[in-house]
Amino acid sequence: GALESGFTQSDVAYWAYNGTGLYDGKGKVEDLRLLATLYPETIHIVARKDANIKSVADLKGKR
Fold this sequence. Notes:
Pfam families: NMT1_3. This is 31 kDa antigen. The chain has 63 residues and is low in regular secondary structure. It is elongated, with a radius of gyration of 15 Å. It has one domain (10-59). It is built from 1 helix and no strands. The chain starts with 9 loop residues before the first helix and ends in a 45-residue tail after the last helix. The mean pLDDT is 89.
């Protein structure tokens, strides 16, 4: 079988599921499912391991 997955912020997932916020007027995404919560934080920053980014300061000059 196949699986389509991705990362999203909790508020955006909530809006999609309820058809509100950014999804207002676009309909509900009712087949949305949660696998796990990464961290109880406001923002997540994800980088490839080979990018050698260990802190927010390491992002300076990156694209």
